[in-house]
Write the structure tokens for this entry.
Amino acid sequence: MTTVVSPGGVPSARKGLIPDRYKGFLQQAMVLVTLVVLVVFFSAMKPAFISWSNISSLLLASVVTAIQAIGLTFVIATGGIDLTPGLGMAATAVVAALLMTGAGLPVAVGVLGGVAAGALLGLVNGTLIARVKMQPMIATLAMMMVCWGTALVLSGGRNLSLRGVAGYDKIAVGELIPGLYNGVLILVVLAIIAGVVMNKTVVGRYALAIGSNKEATRISGINVVRWEILAYVICGIFTGVSGVIMSSRLFAAVPTTGQGYEMYAIAAAVIGGTSLRGGRASVFGAVIGAVTIQTIFNGLTVMGVQDQWQKVVLGAVVLGAVFIDIMRRGGKEE
Amino acid sequence: MTFGADTSAGPACPLLEARGITKTFPGVTALADVSLAIRGGEVHAVVGENGAGKSTLMKIFAGLYQPDAGELRLRGQPVTLPTPLAARERGISVIHQEFFLMNHLSVAQNIFIGREPKLAGGIVNDDRTLNRAAGELLERLGVAIDPQIQVGRLTIAAQQMVEIAKALSYDSSVLIMDEPTAALTESEVATLFRIIRGFVTPTTAVVYISHRMEEIKAIASRITVLRDGRFVDCRPAADLAVAEVIQLMVGRQIATGLRPAPRTPTDTVLAVRGLTSAVVHDVSFELQRGEILGFAGLMGAGRTETARALVGADPKTAGTVTVGGVPARIVRPADAVRLGIGYLSEDRKRYGLLLRQSVAANIGLPSLREFLRFGLIGDRRMRATAETYRESLAIKTPSVAQQLRNLSGGNQKKVVLAKWLERDCNILIFDEPTRGIDVGAKQEIYDLLRRLAGQGKSIIMISSELEEVLRMADRIVVMCAGRVTGVLDNAAATQESIMKLATQFARPAGPGKERQ
């Protein structure tokens, strides 16, 4: 372990042992350790848990939440929040389905259409928040209703079956690599791209700067409105992708799915070490957070714990994660 | 020590008296052994530079601060004022510069907040009695304000009247007013003075804090001057000329050797013409290459606002800016940064820095694009760059990966400077560059400014310390109430001449929206 030398009364990194620079890695490691402990615990309780078929379906079930959480990470980095991923997923799935079944267009057009619908949703969210200066919570709550209504209106309130669309189901449940669902593969690829964008490009850096201190970022000569909108657009794109994956998994666009998914996505991001106060975000953590949530659900199910109790456990886990965030921040802003 | 309190033993016992008050804050002595006696029947002006201790003294009278030493006496009896409520109950009311009014409540509700007359055994508010009582108070003041109107809909002058009415409702015998005319038009000032004169009886008094010499001469019977937290003099207003008051206020000498030598003019890098925003009016000045241009003035003179409007942080309503001879369109800070103008805010925590990010990330923020390779940020290169600034500016931190909140104030200022230097800014605006940092670090900042100017950077230095301005600035722009009142060459400037310009208030003769 490196120790910090502090020359001439210069304050060293707080509480000594671990320099600030490595605290991020430590946080990530903690999330991973928590997940491993959970996996070991459930395996010990019920050996069936650790079977590849169970793990494989657990991972597939995490994909939608993980993808939404990745997108949300960009918004939360700016200090904002987005409640539209859940019902936005329903709306974008319906748009994709209508393009393929209604208009009879190819799968690629349907997929791109769904993702584009998500991007448009993000653009509206971002414009309302960054340019019109609405509060993120209120603006996206309203947009969540709009998504819900849109999904119901466009679909006529019915499930739009996609069984007739050849190859669409392969997007999520096909196996390009034998034994690994394509949905999981897509998640891994998107997570790597998003991780690079967050950590190594101006997009992520400006989002984090805005979340740290918006006014200082503006005075530094950065067009904060534009970059804040972009964060919401990215979030919307990931919502669109989640809509495609979800409808592919279900062989249908179901306008009534998605309620509450935004909460899982937010929880995943927070468990992964992203701070709701902005300025601090982890794509990797968001993915691990989503898998952790699914592990809790899956493990408790295998153990025979009732669905209602699973939600209570998840709530407790989120509270714990937020509490850790507060402890890490040392309580108040300076 | 002789001071205005020497009548305390006589028959005319002072109404309110401070004896040997000392108040220290960490690192500063705000008041040192200050004595002051307010007599019944007088309007007592208290004057002094920024930081002279006026506000601290008033806060002690108001029960907001407790003195470390010394005592307060009310009508000859020692008193302690542990809370603002205790002060008000003893008849001492303060009208602060910023009003403590609730904009959404009515005038009457504001006046009697917390003391609403009740009906039905103390459950229901008795609005009729409330409005009548408020109406009577306002009538006593001779102002026509509807007690039922929302305070937020009143003019500043009318809101001030509501504050005064509130003070009257407590049967105040001492009314302390802090810069009461700052936001008033000429006719509103006349109304205020009429009310002040009406308020003062042989058993009541007004303490009037102001920078406006003409008004002080017009309303005050005696003037007390404070400087650097010490009592300087107290004399009848009639015996003091304005020039004398200013001399008493500044009264310090600076060794001439410390002042900059006259410099030969160079080409103009920045010209501002008629800059106007919500706060500043028609500000014009020029900045030359390698020059340090000081901006002097009292608090609220509009210097920070000039800088903010200039760099596009606040909207401008009029004015042109020319950078290097080319007309510049600056509507947002990004435009100013592109033109090489960097603003180092006084409030670096709010406007300057990302406290929870590293030194390197802060220095690299405005020039992030310079560090890109194939669209990816070269963090190693950025840290190396930050490292060079750590050495050249002597930023004290164990590492450039350190979070900024762990650095001292002076070092944080250097980080803000580093980020503008890395962005190749040739025009640097320092807003109060030495505020809140210790003496040793101050000297370091002064040396740094000189060095930068020597390298051909052009510097605007906003400072409230006359000494600092005279030591550092080649030329001095003096502002008062949002306007430029003069530009002085250092050789021609004295503390007196700056202070005179800094208190040259020109009132808008415009329509005084008086509700009479």
Summary: Chain B touches chain A at residues 311, 313, 332-334, 336-338, 343, 345, 349-358, 361, 365-366, 368-369, 372, 375-377, 379, 396-399, 401-403, 405-408, 419, 423 (CB under 8 Å).
